[in-house]
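Supplementary Methods. Inverse-folding protocol.

Structures were first reduced to a discrete structure-token string of length 162. This string, shown here, constituted the complete conditioning input.
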């Protein structure tokens, strides 16, 4: 295979850019105008997990959990660490499950995400009971987690072998 050398690297200052002029379009293919618009760029989803509603809701919960974690007083690092791990684990297990090919692997990761969601619910309850989290965050977080668990249960059931 022959290597084509250009005067600069793609996207480098002074180098060719995909879609910049007609000769570049011949080398790099048609210009993707959706990615040129910064508002639409974030809507272009490249990975399977990004298209899952449960993944998007998991990210929303992660942001809420981070708010609660940041508000925890000093001396509660054990709660902060565990809550950080469980809330991140929801999102990561959903993403990893979506990237698997076999039904069994997908099911296993979605079950792990469900476990992390129930763990996060317990941690949210602990923070609320110890008056470390307010009622609005507790209520909103529990609602999100209930939806996440319901969605994950549906996904798990869809990958059960008959």
């Amino acid at each position: 295979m022959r290597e084509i050398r250009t005067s600069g690297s793609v996207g480098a200052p002074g180098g060719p850019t995909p879609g910049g002029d007609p000769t570049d379009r011949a080398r790099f293919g048609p210009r993707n105008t959706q990615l040129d618009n910064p508002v639409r760029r974030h809507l272009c989803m490249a990975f399977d997990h990004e298209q899952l509603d449960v993944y998007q809701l998991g990210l929303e919960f992660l942001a809420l959990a981070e708010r609660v974690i940041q508000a925890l007083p000093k001396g509660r690092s054990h709660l902060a660490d565990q809550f950080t791990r469980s809330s991140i684990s929801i999102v990561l297990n959903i993403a990893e499950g979506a990237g698997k090919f076999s039904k069994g692997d997908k099911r296993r990761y979605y079950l792990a995400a469900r476990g992390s969601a129930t763990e996060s619910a317990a941690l949210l309850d602990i923070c609320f009971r110890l008056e470390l989290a307010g009622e609005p965050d507790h209520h909103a977080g529990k609602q999100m987690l209930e939806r996440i668990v319901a969605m994950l249960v549906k996904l798990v059931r869809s990958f059960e072998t008959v």
